[in-house]
Amino acid sequence: MRLYAHQLRADQLIFWRGRESAVFVFLFPILLYLLLGTVYDGEFEGRPVTDYLTVALIAYGVANTMFGGLAITLVIRRESGVLKRIRSTPLPAATYLAAVVTSSLLVFALQSIVIVVLGRTLYGAHLPSDGVSLVLAYALGAFCFAGMGLAAAALIRSAEGASAVVNVIVLPMTFLAGGFGPTRDFPELLKAVANVLPLTYLVDLVTAILFDAKPIWEQPRAVGVLLIWGVAGALVASRRFGWEPKQR
Predict the structure, then answer these.
(1) 86 in any annotated domain
(2) Among candidate residues 84, 83, 76, 69, the one with its CA nearest the CA of residue 25
């Protein structure tokens, strides 16, 4: 536990001292929320659209932080030789990865709090009364995208391409899943593509909690899909994740 706490503290210090990572991972979803909250108005399913944007942009924050940020961090550390040096220390591999994932989770939690505070103060956004279901939904989303982030880190071969690969996946997925606004007017082809994306099910999960007052345990399909994606990502990572640089 002491090694875990020490590594977690180190990862937090590294993250907040790195301006680029802080902007991309922490600030970007917040800036998007401020932009979209200013552009969109009116109602969605009988509630202010800013209510929808609040929960949807937090869902985007899950993907951006737990998938994108985690994958980029691990790829850069692997290709720069950091992971190889860590493997030669007494720090267990599982402890190191647990600390890195927890550090990303803390960043996401703080990011979510900022979005909620901004939504309440600037746009009068409301959150559902069932806060427990909402927290559980985002925790499930964090598990799903952490597993996918570890898998992506195992598959991406170069530090230079990590950011490009992540953005090519995360931004279109968020657009199709409704993270940047409602998708009710999308063509059927785009809706069909969205139906296989994990973020779609996370957005559906949290919006059902918000608009329909449906607790998380009444949405087994969305829960099951997110669990499958998370477990599949973890299995890929367990087989393909490496500690030594792939580029020679």
Answers:
(1) yes
(2) 69
Q: Please check whether residue 246 lies inside any domain of the structure.
A: no
- Write out pLDDT tens, residues 179-227: 787 777 788 888 888 899 999 999 999 988 888 888 899 899 999 999 9
Model confidence pLDDT, tens digit, residues 68-114: 889 999 999 898 888 889 888 888 889 999 999 999 999 999 999 99
Structural domain contains residue 248: no
- How far is 218 from 61, CA to CA, in rounded Å? 24
